[in-house]
Amino acid sequence: MELLPEIAERVSVRSFTDRVPPEDVVRRILEAGRLAPSAKNRQAWRFVVIRKEEVRRKIEEAAFHQEYVGQAPVIIAGCTTNVEYRMPNGQLSYPIDISIAMTQMMLQAVHEGLGTCFVSSYDEERVKYVLSVPYSMRVVLLLLLGYPAEEPLRPERYPLERIVGFDHW
After folding, report:
1. pLDDT of residue 6 exceeding 80
2. Residues 6+ away with beta carbon under 8 Å from 80
3. C-alpha torsion angle, residues 10, 12, 16, 22 (rounded to 10)
4. Measured between alpha carbons, how far is 97 from 23 in angstroms, rounded to an integer?
5. What single-letter DSSP state applies at residue 40?
6. What is the DSSP letter of 155?
7. What domains are there in the chain, each with its CATH number?
8. Which ranges carry the Nitroreductase domain (predicted)?
9. 119-159 pLDDT tens trace
10. Second label for 135, Cα 20 to 30 Å away, from 35, 126, 160, 164?
């Protein structure tokens, strides 16, 4: 089975060098998110790029002092601008839309030779305060970007037979 190398190679990186990704690389990563699909093409997102060390340290504190959060030279906060829209199936659209966009960013980052890690364990109100996110908006996910300091472990994945059903559960 042939897969994109970026999908096969992607792992969560929790140790970064201090080398900062070039601006054009970061812009291509953001472009990958911009091009993502969203419910009814609402594109109800805003991405905050965090590069200043003092701001990254504040995000690290808000992420319950997980050191690797502040170690990443770039953090992208995926925020929603519409917390109320529900799709016809009853699901809120923003967690799905932001996840799709940030997954595309993550795969582009891997393509660019960067390591990434999604972070969902943080005090959202503190992150919103640090980033001046409006009260009515949500910070859905953080994406860490940087050059890996070491080769991360590749966790074992379940075989398809364990997670796929055809035509029924």
Report:
1. yes
2. 44, 45, 46, 94, 97, 98, 137, 138, 140
3. 40
4. 25
5. G
6. -
7. 12-152 (3.40.109.10)
8. 7-65, 66-147
9. 999 999 999 999 999 999 999 999 999 999 998 888 999 99
10. 35
